[in-house]
Design brief:
- The protein is an alpha+beta fold and 175 residues long.
- Helix content is 25%, strand content 27%.
- The protein has four helices and twelve strands, in the order E-E-E-E-H-H-E-E-E-E-E-E-E-E-H-H.
- It has helices at 42-46, 50-59, 142-148, 154-174; strands at 6-10, 16-20, 29-32, 38-41, 61-64, 67-70, 79-80, 86-90, 93-96, 105-108, 120-122, 133-135.
- It has a four-stranded mixed beta sheet, with no helix packed on it.
- The model has no long low-confidence stretch (mean pLDDT 95).
- It binds S-adenosylmethionine and zinc ion.
- Residues 11, 13-17, 58-59, 76-77, 79-80, 123-125 line the site of S-adenosylmethionine.
Length: 175
Amino acid sequence: MSHEHIELRDSPIAGRGVFATRHIKAGEVVFTAHPDDIKYEIDAVYAMPPDQRDAILYYTWQCGPTTLCLDGGIGRYQNHSCDPNTWWINEDTTVARRDIAAGEEVTCDYGAFMMSVPYDMPCNCGAANCRGRITHRDYLDSRFQRTHGDHVPPYIRDAINAAKLSVQTDLDVKA
Ligand SMILES: C[S@@+](CC[C@H](N)C(=O)[O-])C[C@H]1O[C@@H](n2cnc3c(N)ncnc32)[C@H](O)[C@@H]1O
Ligand SMILES: [Zn+2]
């Protein structure tokens, strides 16, 4: 479910995106789960005919270790930015990361939820810190981790912690 002051418009990033129709303050909830959202198990999606599978992969975001979510509203049109103006506060809610001006496109970082579905796409976000490509392994990058801190879904936080622990264990074994 989206903030009441967000609407669908053509986007300079890609196709259509979602835009603020009035000023949104940092910390305001921008998207959160709604009963109309549909959940899919990733294995079940890969067992579907290719057209159906690809349509679901295009519009869904990963909302759990093995789950994809389809926003029942305009949230499915949210584009990615490497300098997003929203970020996660729990598994299914994003808030404004900074003040968002009326007319500004509302973006999130796909790298904050992509993990289990292979993904590698050239990025057209135009941000000064654009990573150039968006992949399902961006959460492993230390600069990404510094930028997002705990503002990622819990399964991504767990995966980051597991990766750090595994590096530490390797170092301990070699010491
Ligand atoms: C969930 S859709 C977003 C809505 C899409 N713009 C549309 O009009 O259907 C995700 C797709 O949007 C495009 N997209 C989103 N963010 C992008 C970005 N930063 N750079 C390039 N393409 C992007 C890609 O084609 C991606 O697969
Ligand atoms: Zn980018």
